[in-house]
TrEMBL record:
It comes from Nitzschia inconspicua. GO terms for biological process: response to wounding. InterPro entries: Prot_inh_pot1. One of its GO terms (molecular function) is serine-type endopeptidase inhibitor activity. The keyword Signal applies. This is Potato inhibitor I family protein. Keywords: Signal. Residues 1-21 form the signal peptide. It comes from the Eukaryota. Pfam families: potato_inhibit.
Length: 112
């Protein structure tokens, strides 16, 4: 009986350890995803994006800023609210502006 008791304790400790490691890694991944900054797009002038100055602005101010610094071209400015499903295709003239529930820009806008 002692052997099976030792096995149960070992399995219990192993399960607790795996659970603790999983929680730690999930928290670590969440911290890393918040610190990732989109790299600048290679081959494009800075006025062509991304636009880090928009971070924290109202959506209207961000739109005005982007339109004021970009070359006059046909742009598709899209306001993206939390939870919005997105397509994965790249479109040069599309600029996605991610906003929070209050309409404040929550991520650096860029082309795509």
């Amino acid at each position: 009986m002692t052997c099976s008791g030792d096995v149960l304790v070992t399995l219990l400790l192993l399960g607790v350890g795996l659970l603790a490691a999983t929680v730690h890694l999930q928290n670590k991944g969440h911290q890393l995803s918040n610190s990732i900054v989109a790299p600048p797009m290679i081959g494009m002038a800075s006025q062509q994006g991304p636009w880090p100055k928009c971070l924290g602005l109202s959506v209207e101010s961000c739109e005005s800023y982007i339109l004021s610094v970009t070359a006059r071209e046909s742009l598709d400015l899209q306001i993206i609210s939390p939870g919005t499903a997105l397509s994965g295709n790249f479109q040069k003239n599309r600029i996605r502006i991610f906003v929070d529930e209050e309409g404040v820009v929550s991520a650096v806008p860029g082309r795509g």
